[in-house]
Design goal:
Blueprint: E1 7-9, H1 20-23, E2 30-32, E3 53-55, E4 77-79, E5 100-102, E6 123-125, E7 146-148, E8 169-171, E9 192-194, H2 206-212, E10 216-218
Parallel strand pairs: 1-2, 2-3, 3-4, 4-5, 5-6, 6-7, 7-8, 8-9, 9-10
Length: about 220
């Protein structure tokens, strides 16, 4: 029996497994499965073609299925915050309509390559992971307005960050940065740069130029 409701929330239900009836509700646009103890997700999620928003945060997921990439209508957000993910399937690059991705508080040591294909992203949250570098091709995310990288292991940033011409907020708190590329100073829409909790960085002179034009720099 198909449920015609557009939203289903099973938030904080103590679920270890998603009930089978959920996958039958193919008319859903929003699915909330956050704050459970899910360790895996069925490949049946790929048949829920109308999903625009999925909340899988605060679970025990170590992987997400390839079939997630078949949700080409996924546009509002994909929330994977606070799981145990170390990688994402390359096929997720097909989610080109996705605007918001949160994979903070996981176990990523390498920037997930699939994210570079998510050309519609406006907000990307990768805080509280173990990233030691960002890819040179980061500039491909041309629509990005917010980039949150708090509490990783970054010592530097690629110069291609200057290609993020729509960027407004850049959160670098708590990284062991020793250098900032001057390209940041040329980001025309940047209005917030957060450099708090960084003890390894000597601030470059162009920070004053950013502040003079109205960008708030937290240090």
């Amino acid at each position: 029996m198909q449920n015609r409701e557009s939203k289903l929330s099973l938030w904080k239900r103590g679920l270890e497994v998603v009930p089978d009836y959920v996958w039958e509700q193919t008319e859903l646009e929003t699915l909330v499965l956050g704050e459970n103890t899910l360790s895996e997700l069925s490949e049946q999620i790929g048949q829920m073609k109308k999903l625009r928003m999925i909340d899988l945060g605060h679970n025990l997921l170590t992987r997400v299925p390839e079939e997630l990439s078949e949700l080409d209508g996924l546009s509002e957000f994909l929330y994977l915050h606070d799981n145990r993910l170390t990688s994402l399937p390359l096929s997720l690059a097909k989610l080109t309509k996705l605007r918001y991705l949160n994979v903070s508080q996981n176990e990523f040591e390498v920037f997930p390559e699939c994210i570079l294909g998510m050309s519609g992203l406006i907000e990307l949250r990768l805080a509280d992971n173990y990233l030691i570098s960002l890819p040179d091709s980061l500039g491909r995310l041309a629509q990005l307005r917010e980039l949150h990288l708090r509490n990783n292991r970054l010592s530097s940033l690629p110069g291609s960050i200057g290609d993020l011409q729509a960027l407004r907020q850049l959160d670098l708190r708590g990284n062991p940065l020793t250098h900032l590329p001057r390209a940041i100073a040329n980001l025309p829409r940047l209005d917030k740069l957060d450099l708090r909790w960084i003890e390894t960085l000597t601030l470059p002179g162009w920070i004053a130029d950013l502040e003079a034009r109205g960008c708030t720099v937290y240090r």
